[in-house]
């Protein structure tokens, strides 16, 4: 509920036990903001609390688990759910996939709530920094990180919900939370302002603590905004600055990009941090969610036996469309998709986040938000959209070469545009990029209605059991469903909020 999501009087804080290891996060307490924000150490703890809220956006730390993959990946033609005849109680996920979601879906509420938690905590840090006296260099980094995280949260909100309330200061009363929605254009302007300031304040990756925001991450966020708003020239300038900085490079082995042993690698621009330190309570559970429902997940190498993932499995399952999208010889397919046989039926699952667990359901996978390969593909797209197609192709070639593929052979702008779309689909499969790509390129309605026809024509190919078919009203993708409804609970708490048309 928004009245306590962004309230400034109390903030959940977390602290790291080792300054060099940003991953070992241990919750300590709830402390009054008035009494807490005094020393640099206080801000270090509070700052980690802002980062920790990202876990609620990208993937909760407990089963059954919700995360950005529901609205960002399952909404697309990349992944679906495996229909579970024994448990039909997960409509918060299935309805989103089938385009029959309403104002009460848990997944939608979870994203909205988690983003405002980030915003509320960032606002408190930013306000409190105004009255402390430790070194300006440290204050600038704290400020840059909070501005980056606030901008990232608002960018997430505006892409998925359209107009949203813009709150830039801590609130201390229920009445202060009752604000109307702000026009999308105004929210975008604030995102640009926050990210621009953050880019100027934050250090480069080479000197920043692993796992924390950098100038490169802020510039990438800015470039992403410009790609969505189709300001190609500004996106090109920023993306080229990231390339020329020399701070990033492709990892030679695509599979190693996602290995927990290789977190925050040379390709990583920003990723959400998780840890399998059981006492910290900040582990990830993606692997168990993305595997099919298994009586014994121990059949998957590296997982403990006799710990069923019950009704929690079978989500974010690769579609036949995604599997068929990989070209012969594309190394990314083997690194992204694996299969397992359950009751004589073979199912695919996303392999990127499946690296075993010592204890059920505690896994150690981070979630990638921005990678250097996206810089290259965004840059190719920005160039191509400006008619600089010849200059764009070498950037696509870099990504394909790592995948073991030869350069594309098309050279006209329209064909290169589709080649980039295809490259992004397979390069970022399972990373919450596909749905937003389809929306920003005005392809969502066409692509998803076509997939809906295929699902209804052959439900078994999309993991429906014999005799079970999708709802007749499912996969009817209309323009209003390009954004999601404001959660009904938020509207009931804040009478100044209005609903998106169509919901």
Overall description:
The chain is mostly helical. Among the domains are: 1-182, Serine Threonine Protein Phosphatase 5, Tetratricopeptide repeat, CATH 1.25.40; 286-365, no CATH class; 443-483, no CATH class. Helix content is 45%, strand content 8%. It contains 21 helices and eight strands. A two-stranded antiparallel sheet has the order 1-2. It has a two-stranded antiparallel ribbon with strand order 3-5. Strands 4-8 form a two-stranded antiparallel ribbon. A hairpin with an 8-residue loop joins strand 1 and strand 2 (25-32). Helix 7 packs antiparallel against helix 8 (136-161), helix 12 (232-245) runs antiparallel to helix 16 and helix 16 runs antiparallel to helix 17. The protein is globular, with a radius of gyration of 22 Å. The model is unreliable at 1-29 (pLDDT under 50). Belongs to the SusD family.
How would you briefly describe this protein structure?
This protein has helices spanning 2-5, 33-36, 40-52, 54-58, 68-74, 91-97, 106-128, 136-161, 174-177, 184-201, 215-228, 232-245, 286-290, 320-325, 331-336, 372-385, 389-402, 413-427, 434-440, 444-457, 488-493, and strands spanning 10-16, 25-32, 79-80, 268-272, 317-318, 337-342, 345-350, 367-371.
Rg over CA atoms: 22 Å
Q: Would you tell me the overall average pLDDT?
A: 92
Q: How would a crystallographer describe the biggest sheet? A: 2 strands, antiparallel
Structural class: mainly alpha
Low-confidence stretches: 1-29
Mind telling me which CATH architecture of the domain at 1-182 this is? Alpha Horseshoe
Strand order of the largest sheet: 1-2
Q: Roughly what percent helix?
A: 40-55%
Distance between the termini: 20 Å
Strand and helix order: HEEHHHHEHHHHHHHEHEHHEEEHHHHHH
Count of discrete alpha- or pi-helical segments spanning 4 or more residues = 21
Q: Give the class-level CATH name of the domain at 1-182.
A: Mainly Alpha
Principal-axes geometry comes out as globular
Strand element count: 8
**CATH level-3 fold name of the domain at 1-182:** Serine Threonine Protein Phosphatase 5, Tetratricopeptide repeat
Strand content: 5-15%
Pfam families: SusD-like_3, SusD_RagB
Keywords: Cell outer membrane, Membrane, Signal
Domain RagB/SusD: 335-503
Domain SusD-like N-terminal: 104-227
